[in-house]
Amino acid sequence: MSSPNTTPDVLIVGAGPTGLAxxxxxxxxxxxPRIVERALERSTHSKAFGVNARSLALxxxxxxxxxxxxxxxxMTRLHLRRPGRVLATLRLDEVDHRYPFMLxxxxxxxERILEDALAERGVNVERGITAKDVExxxxxxxxxxxxxxxMERIAAPVVLASDGAGSTIRKALGIDFPGTxxxxxxxxIDAELDLSLDADLDPDAAQIFLVPEGGLFxxxxxxxxxxxxxxxxxxxxxLPPGTKVGEVEWRSEFHIANRVADRFTKGxxxxxxxxxxxxxxxxARGMNLGIEDAHVFAALHDRGELDRYDALRRPVVxxxxxxxxxxxxxxxPETWPGRTVRAAPWLVPLAFPLLRRKAQRWVIGLDHExxx
Length: 372
Fold this sequence. Notes:
Number of domains: 2
Protein name: FAD-binding protein
Largest sheet: 7 strands, mixed
Keywords: FAD, Flavoprotein
Number of strands: 22
Strand order of the largest sheet: 6-5-15-16-17-14-18
Cofactor: FAD
GO molecular function: FAD binding; oxidoreductase activity, acting on paired donors, with incorporation or reduction of molecular oxygen, NAD(P)H as one donor, and incorporation of one atom of oxygen
Structural class: alpha+beta
Radius of gyration: 21 Å
């Protein structure tokens, strides 16, 4: 563990998947990161749930991928459906890659495994430390934090801010966070589902149901625990006949925004993960893009080329978030693509073969090069 009185190579603010992955990538390159986090404990709720092929490949050398694979569940199919009918099936296992699937695993488990791997390398997360302000200079940056011992000023030649969508560091630096917000509320339920023998629900696939009033995304975490996510008031009402809802572990309502910071670097401070970009959960790209940010940041820091970080990451993120913004039309019936697919569902199987290969690679994160 880096001592508070020792200047770290890199100060990382925020110990979500992005910050933890960045610390791991840095430690494996021989650097001495210090990582601080305002939360006293990891969240017990599963936010991100999918680890894609790109993230698994990036984490392979650290040994974390092997632990992820032993812990998670491989999801190889995605069904696009109307109630009672499958319109198209996307098979991820047709992709020529060593990880042709989405690994279904709770964010809590991903963070636990990453944090354990860091501890084995002598890097421990310092919890209960909240960033309050930042100053930059030619020598680096100073982060003012408040923790168990009161106020502290931490100097570092390089800072990575991965402190979430409401990033204190991003705001203190005056970095704009433009984008598109959606008015309608979205709902999330993690619940036990009891499937009868005749329930029309594939337990090993993700399901997207399109109905006149919106859409429902459904995926099994593991065992009988499923995630329901959608923009309709009563998610349970869309479940196929023969499906019984049991214990609800988590229920949440939220609004979606697709935003990308207008710069990822200011002086010695760089931003990553949700601090730099947020978007709808289509394609499970959020955490995975953050792990990409972490990999690129660590590689460039190791080479002394952090001046390339913004130019390498922001165009990639802008492109992916733009694609997600277009895809958001599908579950929203007030858009013309949403109206069309509901009025003429027969178009889906006709158009699907033209989009299949690109969609397969996009879902598992292989639609672009990382660049380092």
